[in-house]
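From the methods appendix. Each design record in this collection lists the tokenized structure first, followed by the designed amino acid sequence. Records were kept in a plain field format so they could be parsed without special tools. The example shown here is representative of the layout used throughout.

RECORD:
FOLD TOKENS (192 positions):
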């Protein structure tokens, strides 16, 4: 077992575990959107950021990707971490105000929507890729993927048509951290 501290609390975890896994094992809350235990972590949402001091320097890292090391000092609620989470939530809630989950997280962290209005009031997909990874890694069918790039990036199926590979298992619906997959799934099924 590897021993280190999270918020000055002594914790331990197995070789290969991440900070997030150890925190959850010990009941320490670190908010996430794009993480699910059934798929490999990607660090896409950046909400799980924590401050790590390894004896030489202190930096803010994604806890879902950062492997534990003996002697680490991890802070989940430092001023730096709170600031990063507020900025991440501010950008998400401004871009995707249609998500009830995002609004609840933003309110819990004291973030209010900005004065700038989003043009995508119905869009609540944060492009975290959790549905795409779950479709591939859990269901094993890979009927979802990302299409386009940059600001036009979207979750889609091949040729934007109903996927013949889709088995209708609902894994993508289950893992989606916002209501986006439900809307996408209903839209794709309506076309079929």
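DESIGN:
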């Amino acid at each position: 077992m590897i021993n280190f501290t999270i918020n000055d609390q002594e914790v331990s975890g197995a070789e290969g575990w991440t900070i997030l896994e150890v925190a959850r094992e010990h009941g320490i809350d670190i908010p996430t959107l794009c993480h699910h235990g059934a798929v490999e972590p990607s660090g896409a949402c950046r909400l799980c950021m924590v401050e790590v001091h390894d004896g030489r320097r202190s930096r803010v890292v994604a806890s879902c990707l950062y492997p534990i090391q003996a002697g680490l000092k991890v802070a989940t609620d430092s001023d730096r971490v709170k600031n990063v989470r507020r900025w991440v939530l501010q950008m998400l809630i401004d871009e995707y105000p249609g998500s009830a989950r995002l609004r609840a997280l933003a309110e819990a962290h004291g973030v209010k929507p900005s004065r700038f209005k989003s043009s995508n009031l119905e869009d609540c997909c944060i492009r975290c890729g959790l549905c795409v990874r779950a479709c591939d890694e859990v269901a094993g069918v890979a009927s979802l993927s990302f299409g386009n790039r940059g600001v036009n990036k979207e979750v889609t199926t091949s040729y934007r048509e109903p996927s013949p590979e889709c088995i209708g298992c609902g894994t993508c619906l289950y893992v989606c951290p916002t209501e986006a997959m439900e809307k996408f799934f209903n839209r794709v099924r309506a076309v079929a």
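APPENDIX NOTE: DSSP finds six helices and seven strands in the chain.
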